[in-house]
Amino acid sequence: MNKPLILVVEDDAAVRNLIATTLDTHDYRYHTAPSGEAAILEAASHNPDVVLLDLGLPDIDGIEIIRKIRTWSNMPIIVISARSEDRDKIDALDAGADDYLTKPFSVEELLARLRVTFRRLHYAANGLEQGSAVFENGDLKIDYAAGCAYMAGKELHLTPIEYKLLCLLAKNVGKVLTHTYITREIWGSAWDNDVASLRVFMATLRKKIEKDPSSPQYIQTHVGVGYRMLRV
């Protein structure tokens, strides 16, 4: 079976070589692109399994590249950028990025993010997420057909909003979902970015599924950005 193909989009030669060496050491196949124009050509020509994308490219802003790729592909895009403001992360994720890694980064963290992404691709490809009637993650089980959720075999007594939140996170396991995306999906555009309400519902949901809500195992908070369900 072929190793996954990764497209590295980075104009800084030193960073590009660091990522390429890391991927090479761990037996990943990869192509590189030093500009936005080259990135779009490579993505369209080779259909990589994952794109590692710098936002500060010399010709096209990375956000625009995300939008262009999203017009024809759902290939995972992990942003690797020196832009560390919450607004930059939110803009990238809302444009369609799957994850966001801030420079400087460790190669261990990069490899961990890749593993999470490939696990999500594996589950999706095998019908274990969107196409399955049952979702299982550690002790958590969601029976979509019955509209019920269980923890360690015991049914959870969830409100309709809590259940919708849980299902939304489960169907995007491993992916960071922004506050805006979640509120639109759960309540509609009239509730855009009502973070206060979202936090209240997320807190009550965590109390029901987490052994220790202060140290969550299932739902990870990305401060100022959104939430992600972890694969346990």
Distance separating the two termini: 25 Å
Mean pLDDT: 88
Give the low-pLDDT segments: none
Q: In percent, how much strand structure appears in the residues?
A: 15-25%
* Outline type: globular
How would you spell out the order of helices and strands? EHEHEHEHEHEEEEHEHHEE
Q: Biggest sheet, strands in spatial order?
A: 2-1-3-4-5
In short:
Residues 5-118 form the Response regulatory domain. With 232 residues, the protein is of the alpha/beta class. It contains eight helices and twelve strands.
Topology:
Blueprint (H helix, E strand, L loop, with lengths): L4 E5 L3 H13 L3 E5 L2 H11 L3 E4 L8 H9 L6 E5 L4 H10 L3 E4 L4 H19 L8 E4 L2 E4 L4 E4 L2 E2 L4 H11 L6 E2 H9 L7 H15 L9 E4 L3 E4 L3
Helix pairs in contact: 2-3, 6-8
Commentary on this structure:
This protein has 232 residues and is an alpha/beta fold. It has 2 domains: 121 residues, 3-Layer(aba) Sandwich (Rossmann fold); 96 residues, Winged helix-like DNA-binding domain superfamily/Winged helix DNA-binding domain (Arc Repressor Mutant, subunit A), CATH 1.10.10.10. The chain contains 8 helices and 12 strands. Strands 2-1-3-4-5 form a 5-stranded parallel β-sheet, with helices on both faces. α1 links the parallel β1 and β2. α2 runs parallel beside α3 and α6 packs across α8. The longest helix has 19 residues. It starts with a strand and ends with a strand. The model has no long low-confidence stretch (mean pLDDT 88).
